[in-house]
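RECORD TYPE: inverse folding
INPUT: structure tokens
STRUCTURE:
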């Protein structure tokens, strides 16, 4: 991810996010519109189911109420009352005429409603059965008992027997009646009525009883074939949508007022929503196409914008690390081609300027080093000539010989200008030559000791970084020393750090002078012809701020000079 998106908020991510920010709300609105359309159509279908159910239920309620009123009115029929209350007083022709008139009335009652299958009267006193279908027959005593014992489930007298529905009224009462007026409801006619309003999406409709312990139902379909659906419908009886396997059904139930029944309609949701399915299908196709377009556009942005920009960023980072051999190429003739050309021209010009500045810096540093060295050499040269002069005056020819040899070695080292650096062991050897010259001058007044640890031959150091401090210890530290003077040189070197300590037991340096030295160290543009400051500047120029000189009071009261060279802080190679 850091390689693909090096910046936290890159152009590619911004463009891609902007594209999605525009696209996602559009498709969110489209999905909401599609869902809203489906919901509206579902509500319309549900409302249509409600209207059809209400019409069907209200019409059947009216018919059942009318049947119940006709049945109640039929009980007051004079022929029925005469045959039931005073059959023994009637003459034969009167009784015959009463039976015939009663049969005619029963047929009229049966034909008054399409829902009446049969209307009949059971007369217990003379064991007669008068039916609108079978006419005048002998009554089965068991039939009278079975109808008398039926439980009346509704106030209208609705009862169930052998999957049949009856309206039963007795006189004077059902438990001890002299006759029963029974009206059988035609379930076949009800099934035909159920089929007629069921035109919504090839759905299913049926009537079920809400009475406890009664499983009576009237349907227009084979209930065994839809057993799983009806089981799911019962499980979600109060819901408006039921789900069975991979299908969804809209459900509406309307209760009857005259009887304790409910009319239920089930409609396949997929079929009723068929008109909006093509729009939904096109929406999914458009969504898939949009995902493909987003993918293609993302790849295009990645190739056309992101990768060229990433290439340019990588080139800039190479420039930051000092690599000026960067050259960018772009195959297409677009804005990046112009930017790359200008970048290449800028790198060429920048490379020229860097080389010029680098060369100028090198020359300036070399000139400053030469000047620093020239500040050191004359100072010792004058003192050495004065010592030779005194030895010659005293005719000390051995001293003159030794002094001349040491001076020859000394100035041979000084005048070798082929390189500004020497190996550490040669610098130590040169310091030893300088000490030998000074011992010819001071004899036993000052003792010099060298202590070396580490591979001195593996280090290269600037010329004359030890000798000026030895000179400082002699000239300033032991200026008034008569005997027991000491100068210790301790050298510790490892792979990355070189530490040289030069300590004397002379008069030391006052604290104000040490503070002044610290101030000079903090002032990089300080100019001073002091030898210690010159060495410090040379170390700073070559090795950076991590290297330099530190002055402090030693354990014996004299001055302790610490020279530190840190290879890790190496600066310009001069």
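DESIGNED SEQUENCE:
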């Amino acid at each position: 991810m850091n390689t693909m998106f090096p910046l936290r908020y890159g152009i590619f991510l911004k463009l891609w996010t902007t594209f999605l920010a525009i696209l996602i709300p559009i498709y969110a609105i489209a999905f909401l519109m599609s869902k809203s359309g489906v919901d509206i159509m579902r509500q319309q279908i549900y409302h249509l189911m409600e209207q059809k159910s209400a019409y069907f239920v209200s019409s059947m309620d009216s018919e059942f109420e009318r049947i119940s009123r006709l049945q109640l009115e039929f009980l007051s029929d004079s022929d029925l009352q005469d045959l039931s209350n005073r059959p023994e007083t009637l003459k034969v022709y009167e009784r015959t005429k009463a039976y015939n008139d009663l049969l005619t009335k029963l047929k009229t009652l049966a034909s008054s409603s399409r829902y009446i299958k049969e209307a009949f009267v059971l007369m217990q006193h003379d064991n007669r059965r008068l039916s609108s279908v079978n006419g005048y027959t002998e009554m089965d005593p068991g039939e009278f008992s079975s109808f008398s014992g039926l439980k009346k489930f509704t106030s209208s007298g609705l009862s169930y027997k052998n999957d049949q529905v009856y309206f039963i009224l007795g006189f004077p009462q059902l438990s001890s009646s002299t006759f029963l007026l029974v009206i059988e409801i035609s379930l076949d006619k009800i099934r035909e009525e159920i089929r007629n309003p069921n035109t919504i999406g090839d759905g299913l409709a049926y009537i079920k009883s809400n009475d406890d312990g009664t499983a009576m139902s009237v349907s227009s379909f084979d209930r065994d074939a839809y057993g799983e659906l009806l089981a799911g419908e019962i499980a979600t009886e109060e819901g408006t949508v039921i789900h069975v396997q991979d299908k969804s059904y809209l459900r509406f139930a309307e209760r009857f007022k005259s009887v304790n029944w409910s009319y239920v309609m089930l409609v396949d949701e997929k079929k009723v929503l068929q008109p909006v399915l093509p729009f939904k299908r096109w929406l999914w196709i458009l969504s898939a196409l949009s995902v493909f377009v987003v993918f293609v556009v993302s790849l295009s942005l990645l190739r056309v914008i992101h990768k060229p920009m990433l290439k340019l960023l990588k080139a800039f980072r190479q420039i930051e690390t000092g690599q000026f051999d960067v050259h960018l190429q772009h195959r297409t003739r677009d804005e990046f081609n112009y930017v790359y050309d200008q970048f290449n021209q800028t790198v060429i010009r920048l490379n020229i300027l860097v080389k010029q500045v680098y060369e100028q810096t090198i020359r300036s540093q070399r000139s400053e080093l030469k000047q620093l060295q020239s500040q050191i050499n004359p100072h010792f040269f004058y003192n050495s000539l004065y010592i030779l002069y005194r030895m010659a005056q005293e005719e000390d020819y051995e001293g003159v010989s030794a002094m001349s040899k040491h001076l020859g070695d000394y100035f041979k080292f000084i005048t070798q200008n082929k390189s500004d650096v020497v190996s550490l062991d040669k610098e130590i050897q040169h310091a030893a030559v300088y000490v030998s010259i000074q011992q010819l001058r001071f004899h036993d007044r000052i003792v010099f000791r060298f202590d070396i640890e580490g591979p001195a031959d593996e280090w290269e150091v600037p010329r004359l970084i030890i000798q000026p401090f030895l000179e400082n210890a002699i000239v300033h530290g032991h200026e008034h020393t008569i005997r027991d003077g000491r100068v210790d040189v301790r050298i510790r070197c490892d792979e990355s750090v070189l530490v040289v300590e030069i300590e004397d037991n002379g008069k030391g340096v006052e604290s104000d002078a040490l503070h002044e030295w610290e101030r000079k160290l903090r002032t990089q543009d300080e100019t001073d012809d002091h030898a210690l400051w010159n060495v410090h500047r040379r170390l700073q120029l070559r090795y950076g701020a991590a290297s330099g000189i530190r002055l402090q009071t030693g354990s014996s009261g004299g001055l302790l000079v610490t020279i530190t060279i840190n290879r890790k802080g190496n600066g310009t190679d001069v």
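NOTES: The mean pLDDT is 78.
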